[in-house]
Write a structure and sequence with these properties.
The protein contains twelve helices and ten strands. The protein has about 325 residues and is of the alpha/beta class. The longest helix has 16 residues, at about 200-215.
């Protein structure tokens, strides 16, 4: 199965989409913050990002779900900065150090070269990690890379605080949506990620992703994911994430066949590890909390997707830990 962006490339629609996305940078509204800064003139937005993309690292990564990592790794590109400020971010050295990340600005051409390098290494896909605030730059670079021979599916690995308008323009550019659904309650989104109305915006964004992809995960003959929507839910201590409410929403508003990736890897880091304001997030999840979340999958009839193993999900994940092992099992093994 060919990546969808090749069809847009053949009809010149890909360039037209890129231009529409880039125009939104003139008074930046590419995420729900709608800060309105003119990033085309290199003024920084609320996420501290300007005209050029920032790339902290790019690598063949083996810590994603098996259908993405495969045998040769997911070709992950980790953008600097973020439009969220999660107090427990495991990559806060990348997402919340904008003065450092400014040094990692690259041209669109260089970003395209990174994609082609990952393809040459044998990676199975191009995974853009935290792409929301650089969606137009990402699309421009995909265009350049496609013109030079890129043929891998594009993975949009996002926190889901995305603009529906932007996602509609990405329809046909992105092959695989990999959103987090962080909270069921917007007060938690504001307290722990410093954004307003997370629930409404994230759910609207994921609804749009589902409209584009539907329920079906499309795999190739080697079991690698080529197209679809896979929603990640990270279990947080003290029910902060609202896992049950989010799972019920997925079942009722999307479909019981929507693929889920249930994750156990939370541990207290960044401000959550030291600031008494975030005491509810100051520990790992317990086995009881984890198995409570797992039991909901069967209770609600959600049978598609993956889940981590509790015992082996406690390592500290960072993009430069290329050999990190993050095992998942098929959800259907547990139902």
């Amino acid at each position: 199965m060919s990546p969808r962006y090749l069809k847009l490339l053949a009809t010149n629609e890909l360039e037209a989409r890129v231009e529409q996305l880039e125009a939104m940078l003139g008074a930046c509204n590419i995420c729900p913050k709608d800060c309105g800064n003119d990033r085309l003139k290199d003024k920084i937005a609320a996420c501290y990002s300007g005209r050029l993309p920032m790339v902290s690292s790019y690598t063949a990564h083996f810590g994603e779900e098996p259908c993405l990592s495969g045998t040769h790794g997911a070709g992950n590109i980790f953008f600097g900065n973020c439009n969220l400020r999660c107090v427990y971010c495991q990559n806060y050295q990348i997402s919340q150090t904008w003065k450092t990340q400014k040094k990692n600005e690259v041209t669109h051409e260089r970003l395209a070269e990174m994609m082609l390098e990952l393809q040459d290494r044998g990676c199975h896909n191009i995974g853009f990690v935290s792409p929301t605030h650089f969606a137009p730059q990402m699309a421009r670079s995909v265009l350049i890379a496609a013109q030079k021979g890129l043929r891998l599916p594009v993975v949009y690995n996002t926190n889901a605080y995305d603009s529906v308008e932007v996602l509609k323009l990405l329809d046909g550019i992105v092959d695989i949506y990999l959103p987090d659904l962080k909270y069921a309650d917007s007060d938690a989104g504001f307290q722990y990620s410093k954004v307003r109305d997370y629930q409404a915006h994230a759910r609207a964004a994921i609804k749009e992703m589902h409209r584009q992809m539907g329920d079906e995960l499309v795999f190739d003959d080697n079991g690698l994911l080529r197209r679809g929507l896979l929603i990640r839910l990270l279990v947080l201590p003290n029910a902060v994430a609202g896992i049950e409410e989010n799972l019920r929403w997925i079942r009722n508003e999307l479909s019981a066949k929507t693929a889920i990736s249930l994750m156990a890897q939370y541990y207290a880091t960044n401000k959550a590890a030291t600031d008494p304001r975030y005491v509810l997030l100051s520990r790992r999840i317990s086995q009881g909390e984890w198995w409570g979340a797992v039991s909901l999958l069967e209770e609600l009839g959600l049978e598609e997707g993956f889940m981590q193993e509790y015992e082996s999900a406690s390592y500290y994940y960072r993009p430069d830990f290329n050999d990190a092992d993050e095992p998942f099992k098929d959800i259907r093994d547990f139902t």
